[in-house]
Automatic annotation (TrEMBL):
Keywords: Signal. Residues 1-20 form the signal peptide. It comes from Pseudoduganella rivuli. Residues 10-33 form the Type-F conjugative transfer system protein TraW N-terminal domain. The keyword Transmembrane does not apply. This is Type-F conjugative transfer system protein TraW. It comes from the Bacteria. InterPro entries: TraW, TraW_N_dom. Coiled coil: none annotated.
């Protein structure tokens, strides 16, 4: 936290109290004044409001916020898949605290290794793809046609809203690439699903 600046008049008063000697008059003196910044800002806002500029700024801010929400920035460091590959991921984590049940009984102790797949199942496959690439959209449609109810489509680029409307189903977006980073995906389209007590990640090669 930044310290608040000490007003110039306070500094002058403090320095005056520390020196008792009367140096006499050194010339014409003037009252120390400081601009009232709040009043100045208020005046400028009133001026912008009277000219309509304030409303234009507000509308522009709302429009930019809406565009960001509806067209998120593409996930970085992800490229179209040119070579298919399959990897496996152990989702286990080391617990930082004890895990209790609803009755307060100890289930897992802090420091122990815990695999969430031991207590829950991943019922749907996660399909990651970039909607700006027609090849990836076609690939996604092919997969959804055969198993639409078991796949959750997640974009790494493009408009999830436009695609949701076109497909008449919910399409998601990996905000800030959190899932992509978690699964270590470098190429899309990619499918993530449970296989036993681990996750299988298939990066699917695209036709040239």
């Amino acid at each position: 936290m930044h310290a608040m600046p000490i007003p110039l008049c306070i500094l002058l008063l403090l320095s005056g109290s520390a020196v008792a000697e009367d140096l006499g008059a050194l010339g014409k003196t003037y009252p120390v004044t400081e601009p009232d910044f709040l009043k100045m800002i208020e005046q400028r806002l009133k001026e912008k409001q009277s000219t309509g500029e304030l409303q234009r700024l507000q509308e522009d801010a709302v429009r930019r916020g809406r565009d960001v929400a509806l067209h998120p920035a593409p996930v970085a460091n992800v490229v179209p898949c040119t070579s298919a590959r399959t990897r496996y991921l152990d989702p286990s984590v080391v617990l930082s605290r004890n895990i209790l049940d609803a009755q307060g009984r100890l289930l897992f102790t802090a420091g122990s290794r815990f695999n969430p797949l031991s207590v829950t199942e991943m019922h749907k496959k996660l399909l990651f793809f970039d909607a700006r690439d027609k090849r990836q959209v076609d690939k996604a449609l092919l997969l959804l046609r055969d198993a639409a109810d078991t796949i959750k489509p997640i974009l790494t680029g493009g408009s999830y809203l436009d695609l949701s409307r076109a497909w008449r189903r919910q399409v998601y977006f990996d905000q800030q690439g959190l899932l992509i980073k978690r699964f270590g995906i470098q190429q899309v389209p990619a499918v993530v699903y449970q296989e036993g007590m681990r996750l299988r990640i298939d990066e699917l090669e695209l036709r040239q």
